[in-house]
Amino acid sequence: xxxxxxxxxxxxxxxxxxxxxxxxxxxxxxxxxxxxxxxxxxxxxxxxxxxxxxxxxxxxxxxxxxxxx
Length: 69
What we know:
This protein is about 55% helix and about 0% strand. The chain contains 3 helices and no strands. The chain is elongated.
């Protein structure tokens, strides 16, 4: 499946969602039906998000660092 191959190549979850939105828009413009909320696709995307994580954890700032501003 396209979504799995994209994540295997290193695409983030957010980027994958952008790709799928673009594919959905192209299908709409072409007048072709594509259900991006199909239960099978939703299940795959949830699994990818669970496996890869939605966001990378941010490392803590170094000791003694204070924001300037």
